Structure formats: C-alpha cells, structure tokens
Amino acid sequence: MTTQQTHVLVTGGAGYIGSVLCKQLLDRGHRVTVLDNFLYRQNSLLDCCPFDTFRVVRGDCRDERIVTDLLHDADVIIPLAALVGAPLCNRDRVGAYTINFEAVQMLTKLASQQQQIIFPVTNSGYGIGQPGVPCTEDSPLRPISLYGETKVKAERVVLDRGNAITLRLATVFGASPRMRMDLLVNDFVWRAVHDRAVVVFEGHCKRNYIHIRDVVKAFLHSMDHFESMKNRAYNVGLDDANLSKVELCGEIQRHIPQFVFFEAPIGEDPDKRDYIVSNERILSTGFTPDWSLERGILELSKCYTIVTGTGYGNV
C-alpha cells in the first residue's frame, strides 16, 4: 500500500484526466507535482492551488532539463502528457511522435529503477477485433491510427523498463474541469441535449467505455496494489458497455427521449476501430467500477446545462 506523502509526478496533469486525478491524489494526502504546457489555456487545476502539497510547473514534457529536475524526489510517475486522439495526432504528426513516444522513452531512461510508473495507454491499440471475441491483454495489438501506434510503442518501452503498470483505457466519458466534448459519449450526449439529433456513420462499429472517475480510481488502485499488479498491462473499461454506436445512441435516448438518431446509408467514419474488450484482469485484482454508462449520461446532461460553449476539445 502507498503511504501518506507519497510524491507523485504527473505530466499533463492539467488535462481531461489529470485535473480529476490530481485533486483526488491531494485529497488522499499525497504530494503532487504537475508538469503541463497548458496548451488549451485551461484553468482546471485552480482547486489544487490551496494545497501546500501541490506544485505546478509550466513546461514541456520533452525538455530533459525540466524532467530531470522534477524526477529528483518523485516516488510515483504518471505520464499523462500526450496528444490524444487520431484527429489531433494527424494534425501534428511530429508532435504526436515526440510527445506520445519519445518523451515517455526519455522519462523511462531518466527515472531510477525504484521509481514506479503507472502509464495510461489506449485499448484502441486492438484496432479491429474479431466479431464477438473480447480482446484481452494477450490479444495482438494492431493499431490503425498514428495515435494508437505511438501509445502502443510507448507502452512497450514502459513495460520493458519494468517496475511499471500500464492501463489500457476504454473510450472515456464524463465531466471534468478540463472538459472534452470530442469523446464519443460526451459528444453524443451534447448533441442529444443541444441539437436533439445526430447522424451516425458506420453505426455497427463497437468499442468499450469507462467513466473518467473510474479511470482515476484505476490509477489509485494501481498505486495501492502496485507490487501485486506491476509489470503487466490492464484493460480498464465497463464489461457491460461493449456497445456499437447505434446501441450507444439507444442508451442515450432512454434518458433523453427527445433525442433522435439516424444511421447514414452512405459515407464513412475515419475512425475505423471496431472491437469488444474483456476487463477481467483488472477486476480480478479487486478493482470495481463505480460509474455506469447510465449514471454518466445523467451527469453529462447536467454538465451541458452549465457548459454551453463548443470550445472544449482537443481539436
């Protein structure tokens, strides 16, 4: 078990996941240092500032001088800094490679072997799975986007280095101080609340989902059970939320009845991912998600009563 005043270094800590994770780490009594470039001009860590145990540094995760200094007395390293999502990575291919892979590679070389790493990757690395066959952590990784490729490559470096855990996250949903509306559930609920309709391309494609607070719970669980979980990858998703896009729209419609959706007979989605996932490995360690898809949809409905602008995304 981790102890009070464990020092956690979080790169990209002002992002969608980090801005929820850092507050919970501080509430637990840990010391937290964040390195972030504040690319989106976000103010998502303001509720962390009252903590004497919180430090924030504005900088680039690729800057060896800064990273070396911040690693000095860290116990746990959580590298969240990344260009997340296929559209953003395609827009900045050099940035995707240098941030998502090379910065992580550098960090593994600079960190001491005693420092623990908990690294998030994406289960989109499974690419296109076999129909009806859940992907496990032993399934082949066949990413079909630059984003997936860089994260899969970085995961290999982290696991080869050792003393590490990797979390293969399902598509995340839910409210965050650094909100993202460009994630599938978040986007569809936004459209349900404000547009009342959506046109779905390739509605048969399936993927897995997980609430942001259960992602954070998985990080905390990994810290608490590090010795028994280390040096393995873990899928993190809801076993009852392996859904196609059409099935997802149906779930949203149950809670927002005025929402209508249409499956386009022609056209295609550039995101070709299509797979279902088994999360048995992390469940076998005692981890249990708290947030159902239904609960997340209801949360997002309230969120979008407050958030009315559209400038919340990575692209």
Summarize the SSE layout with pairings.
Layout: E1 7-11, H1 18-27, E2 31-36, E3 54-58, H2 64-71, E4 76-79, H3 86-91, H4 93-110, E5 116-122, H5 146-161, E6 164-169, E7 171-173, H6 184-195, E8 197-200, E9 206-211, H7 212-224, H8 226-229, E10 232-236, E11 242-244, H9 245-255, E12 260-263, H10 280-283, H11 293-306
Parallel strand pairs: 1-2, 1-4, 2-3, 4-5, 5-6, 6-10, 7-9, 8-12
Antiparallel strand pairs: 9-11
Helix pairs in contact: 1-7, 4-5, 6-9, 6-11
Domain NAD-dependent epimerase/dehydratase: 8-237
Organism: Nitrospira lenta
Pfam families: Epimerase
Explain the overall architecture:
By secondary structure, the protein is an alpha/beta fold. The chain has a domain at 7-171 and 210-238 and 277-289: Rossmann fold (3-Layer(aba) Sandwich), CATH 3.40.50. 37% of the residues lie in helices and 18% in strands. The protein has helices at residues 18-27, 64-71, 86-91, 93-110, 146-161, 184-195, 212-224, 226-229, 245-255, 280-283, 293-306, and strands at 7-11, 31-36, 54-58, 76-79, 116-122, 164-169, 171-173, 197-200, 206-211, 232-236, 242-244, 260-263. Helix 1 (18-27) crosses helix 7 (212-224) and helix 6 crosses helix 11. The longest helix has 18 residues, at 93-110. The mean pLDDT is 95.
